[in-house]
Structure formats: structure tokens, C-alpha cells
């Protein structure tokens, strides 16, 4: 007869669950308030969401201080893993979410923001992404992935347009396929090693000398396909432009940032130990994926006639650019990944938010999309401030100095050169030059062409509300003055990454 095992609460270290429990509790509070008293103004739910996100942010800051003193922390039967990657990833997730949620106050026309369920689902989604990055347990990664994905599918569908339903169904279908691939890959690794923890899997495979390399490669193929869908890597990208187009502009911008940083952290944990073990096949496949994603996405972006679809292909290209860090696999490259994504988050979310500034109620005759380039023609004459800010975000995304994303590109290319990937660094620089063309194309329309839809009443030029002005203004300031924060930010990131052993 088995003896009962006494487990103390102290040994479980339940505090490691705090950052995830805060948004979950927040979501449940919002749902309970709606049950008790329905029909309340959405501003209450926005403020509650921000309050719980601020509490989440505070708990992460406390963990960052503890990590600097005590190192990596395990908790809840060693399922939770709080290391530098987990802390940085969660900080990016929470801060990006704090930038997004006030945008729901900007328009009465988007009815989904009036539903308390929107904010509850949003907080559940954040918790799912946080579970993904704060563990190396494949089952918990899967649970977090599905929690976040199921909430996100519903958030897209709540936009309640034909394209939104289509986008949600496409995203659900691709997400289900990606989940299946992840399950098969994880199952094979468990069969080979008897473990579902990435660090233990790495140790067992290394001790065995990778004698079952054939099965390992099959597992990695499934996992790579799964993360290829989540990161929109070519050839798993086809859903991305359609889903972004069917979502509201702000949610599309959010989707280009937060789900991907969670996937990057998991991919870093999962693939880098294989790259360091000289699994040449994986290194070659990653190299091909990175180059194809950067290059083909840029080429497709060149021929787009809709600004939102152009930004969708642009985000695919940026994801390929950043994926190079996992191929390079050095501490410098991993630190550059997080720096790049922080700076990209402000510029890209700002660019998508600017699409709201001249949104339309209905499409006019001959117009087949919401945001054609022609709609921005002569914007400098009708909305000069909006034109200047949008142009600034385009210059930053193009990687022109001294704006935000430029510094991310410089650190990333520098890490490629330092890691011995000189040819890859040249390809990255060439792709940055190609990308500049389609970003400058929008600037040409805004500053050098005459307004086309100036007198058409279908165009709904709006005076940005205070929350929208605040978010766009904050993103603009960070983008312009990023040179002053790059060095301290890089020091903070490098300290966390280096102490995590990556």
C-alpha cells in the first residue's frame, strides 16, 4: 500500500501562479458584476481591466526583483517556471494589453466593446499567453495556447461583420490544425524521453547521444509546423492577411504582437537546445524558413492595394526577421529578439490604431476594401497631424534611423554577424531595403497626392477621442525618442536572458 505523501504549501511556491491568477480573477469579477447588474457602461469594464492589468504588471516587477536576487524559481509541482524569459515575455504581453484595452473607449460604433464578455475573454486570453511563457511543461503550454486561442477566436467574431466571421473560422481552423501538430510532436518527445518538461527532454536526448534522431526530427517537424502557424511563418501564413482584414484595426495590431511573443518564447525554449546540439537538419530548415518568410512576405506586401493587408504581410516579414534569433541561438541574439519586439510593438500598434482615424462607415462605389491606399491620398491636406504621425510609424517600421525599429534591426543584424551568420545578416539588410519601398508608398500617397475621397460623405473622418490620442501619442513619443531608452532597456533584457542560461 502506498504511503501518503505530505506536501507543504510552502514547497508548492503558489506565488508563482500570481501573475496568471490576477487576470483570471479579473475576468470572473467582470462576469459576476454583469450577472448582478447588467447594462453598465463599458467604461467600468475598461477601468476594471486596466486595474487588474496594473496589478499583474506590479506582480511581474516584484518577480523581476526576486529573480535578480534568487535566480530561477519553480512552483506548483515544478510545473511553473519563472525565469528571465518568462518575466520579459509576460511584461511585453501585459504592457501591450494595457495599450490596447483603452482603445475600446474610442468608438460607439464598434458594438463588441459594449459587451462585458469582451473584457472577460480578453483577460482570459492574457492569462493563457502568460501560462505559455511561464513554463517548460508541454501540457501546460498546450493548455495556455488553447485558452488564449479560443478566447481570441471569439474576440474576432464579436466584431460581427461577414469578414469577421470568416476570419474567426479561418483562424479557428488553422489553430485547430496547429494544436494537432503540437500534440503529435509532444507525444513523440514524451515517448522518446518519458518526460514532458523541455529541460528534462533536452537532458535525456543529450545523454542518449540523439540515437533516435529520426523520431526526434519527426517530432520537431510537427512542432515547427505548429509554431509556423502561430508565428505566420511561410508557408503556414495564408490565414494571416484575411484574419487581420476581418478583425477591427486595433485587434489586428494586437494580434501581430502579443500571440507572437508568447510563441517566440516557447520556440526559444523548444528549438534552441536542438540548435546547440548541432542538429544540422533543424538548423537548415530554420534558415530556409527565416529567409523565405522575410523575403516572400516583403514581395507580397509590395503588391497590396489595401493598407491593412500590407501591414499584415509586413508583420509576417518582421516575424521572420525576429525568428532569426532562434536560429542564431546566442544570448546576444535572444536579447535582440526582445528589444526588437518591444520597439516593434509600439510602432505597429500605433500604425494599426491610426487606421481608425479615417475609418469608413460604408464602402463607396468601386471600393473593395476598408483601407485602400487611395483613401490616404492627400491626407496631409485633410488631417495633417494624422498624416505626420502615420508617416512616422511607417519610417520606424521601415527601419530608418533614428526611429524605434531601426535599433531593433541593428542589434539583430549585429547578433547575426557576431554569431557567424554573415550571409543571413546581408539578407536581413536587403529585406529591410525592400520593405522600405512599400512603407514609403503610403507616405507618397499621404504627402504627394491630392485627396481622392475628400468630398465623399461615405468617408467618416473622425476627431480622435482622448484615449486614442493618448495611446497614439505615447507610441509616437517612444518611437521618436527610442534612442534614449534602447541602452537601459537592452541592459535590463540582457541581464534577465543571460541569467536564464539562454
Question: Can you describe what's shown?
Answer:
This protein is an all-alpha fold and 502 residues long. The protein contains 21 helices and two strands. A two-stranded antiparallel sheet has the order 1-2. Helix 3 packs parallel to helix 5, helix 13 packs antiparallel against helix 14 and helix 14 runs antiparallel to helix 19. The chain starts with 8 loop residues before the first helix and ends with a helix. About 2% of the residues have low confidence.
Salient structural properties:
single chain; 502 residues; mainly alpha; two-stranded antiparallel ribbon; 72% helix; 2 strands
Chain-wise SSE layout:
Blueprint: H1 9-12, H2 18-36, H3 42-70, E1 73-75, E2 80-82, H4 84-100, H5 116-133, H6 138-157, H7 162-193, H8 198-207, H9 213-231, H10 239-246, H11 249-255, H12 258-276, H13 280-302, H14 307-328, H15 331-354, H16 379-382, H17 384-397, H18 404-418, H19 422-448, H20 466-480, H21 483-499
Antiparallel strand pairs: 1-2
The average pLDDT value, as a whole number, equals 83
- Regions with pLDDT < 50 over 5+ consecutive residues? 455-463
Shape: globular
Spatial arrangement of strands, main beta sheet: 1-2
Distance from N terminus to C terminus (CA atoms, Å) equals 44 Å
Please indicate the count of domains: 1
Q: Can I get a quick summary?
A:
The protein has 502 residues and is mainly α.
